[in-house]
Amino acid sequence: MKKKIAFLLITILLFVSLVGCGDSGVSSTVEDNKFKAQMTFNGSSTLAPVISAIATEFIESNTTWNNVDSSFPEENISIYVSAGGSGAGAKSVIEGTSDFGMLAREVKGEEKEKIGDIKEFVLGIDALTISINPENPLVKLKDSLSTEEIMKIFSGEYKYWNDLDESLEHKEIVVVIRDLGGGAHEVFQKSIMGDVQVREDAIQSPSMGALVTKIIENKDAIGYASYGMVNQNQGKLIPLKVDGIEPTEENIVNGSYKVSRPLIAIKKGELTQEQQAFMNFVLSDEGSQMIENMGFVPAN
To answer: DSSP of 16-67, one letter per residue?
Structure first.
């Protein structure tokens, strides 16, 4: 029962925006020594399930803070995780509505400037795979697309599959992307598209999970699916090579696969002792193993 309650506590909040959390005990420096049993995370829809899973394990293992450290009070551990996109994660830290922001991209210069005393924690590495449905005839024709071909598909220059190759059917290409303000789209735009914009009728998905579902459900769809999500849905979608480079863990880590991105947690100011205790768990061998089990490349 405890397991179900802990899991429910966190997963329900994955899809609830943290409105009005500014008064919930956000702390920016260790100078405020008042213990806060609750902490909040907001941001990337890719990273939110990861933090949620780790937080669930942390809560199930300890229940109250004194079981984490005997010097902590006997108060229930509360960790709230909400998904709103990388930009929302950075904004929540800037505005002080969340303790931690979750980003699936680099922190922008202007974000760092607004936060000031920023603390960054690189939790892992993800990649954006150019993925299609297993029933797409392209699977049998070729296993790699060039950067130019991807650009033409996502810009709408190639509108039908036979524009890519004459042997393919005259069926419209269904382009699926994340919302334009999300971290995933920013990474894709920078790595692949450059100054060329994606087609206006591309389907914008509210989360990476929704994007992957669109590809799984439509054999004419193509989208930039998270490496972690591909690993979680093996056989349900096919990741293609980019310029002949396969999106493997080795190629992602060594940088030869070009569409990769960091998974980062950020905070303004020093961590409180209870926040540090949780982040120590996130970055521990156990936390890293959970990150890997969810299909991502752990930082360590």
So the answer is: S--TTGGGS----STT-----SEEEEEE-TTTHHHHHHHHHHHHHHHSBGGG
Lowest mean pLDDT among 47-56, 131-140, 181-190, 275-284: 181-190
Q: Which of 290, 263, 12 is nearest to 121 (CA)?
A: 263
**Domain regions of the chain by residue span:** 2-126+262-298, 127-260
Beta strand extents in 134-196 (DSSP E only): 144-145, 174-178
Which CATH number describes the domain made up of 2-126+262-298?
3.40.190.10
Q: Which two tokens stand for residue 149?
A: 């071909």
Structural tokens at position 95:
């505005």
Residue 262's identity, in one-letter code, is P
Model confidence at 33, pLDDT cuts 50, 70, 90, reads: low
Distance CA 96, CA 300 (A): 29
List beta partners, residue 43: 83, 102
Lookup: tokens for 112: 């760092």
Taking the whole predicted model, whether its pTM rises above 0.85 is answered as no
Distance CA 182, CA 166 (A): 34
Q: Please give the full DSSP string across 215-250, using - where no structure is assigned.
A: HHH-TTEEEEEEHHHHHHTBTTBEEEEETTB---HH
Class of domain 127-260: alpha beta
57-96 pLDDT, tens digit per residue, is 999 999 999 999 999 999 999 999 999 899 999 999 999 9
CA 176: distance to chain centroid? 17
Of 30-44, 155-169, 179-193, the range with the lowest mean pLDDT is: 30-44
